[in-house]
Amino acid sequence: MKKRTIVYILTIIALLFVGLSQIYIKKQQDQALIDDTLSYLTEKGYEVNSEIADISVVDVGGEARDVPATVVTFTDEPSVTYFYSYKQDSNQVMQVDVVNEEGNQTPKHQEF
Q1: CA 67 to the chain's CA centroid
Q2: How far apart are CA 51 and CA 43, in angstroms?
Q3: Which of 42, 57, 69, 102 keeps 20 to 30 A from 85, CA to CA?
Q4: How far is 42 from 57, CA to CA, in rounded Å?
Q5: What is the mean pLDDT of each run of 10 residues along the chain (112 residues)?
Q6: Dihedral (CA of 83, 67, 92, 21) sign
Q7: Do residues 27 and 19 lie in contact, with contact meaning Cβ atoms separated by under 8 Å?
Q8: What was the pLDDT predicted at 2?
Q9: How far apart are CA 112 and CA 103, in angstroms?
Q10: Cα 83 to Cα 18, 36, 66, distances in angstroms
Q11: What is the DSSP letter of 6?
């Protein structure tokens, strides 16, 4: 009986360790993408401290794939959302999509 209890406890500890490790790794990857996106925008000439209203990470790949993208909102266009992600098989950031909620004009920061 004691051996079984010890095995259960060790299994629970191992599962908790694996789960927490996965959460930590995901947060590190998300922060790296945010940092790379901010560097990319700085290289493009943006003042990230004053021109970026919000930046966060979402998964855009659907259920089959885990594809992270940063969601950026600029201060001068609060109704337009820009998505940035890594180029396939690369660590280079690129703009992958733009969502204009108002749809009445061309977004100012659109790259394609």
Answers
A1: 9
A2: 14
A3: 102
A4: 18
A5: 86 91 91 96 94 94 80 94 92 93 84 85
A6: positive
A7: no
A8: 85
A9: 16
A10: 30, 13, 15
A11: H
DSSP state letter for 2: H
Instruction: Give 18-74 as a DSSP string.
Output: HHHHHHHHHHHHHHHHHHHHHHHHHHTT--HHHHEEEEEEEE-STTT---EEEEEEE
Strand-by-strand arrangement of the 93-100 sheet: 52-59, 68-74, 80-86, 93-100
Distance separating alpha carbons of residues 89 and 41, to the nearest angstrom: 20
Token digits of residue 9: 């406890």
The DSSP letter of residue 101 is S
- Cα–Cα separations (whole angstroms), residue 23 to 10, 61, 103: 20, 18, 37
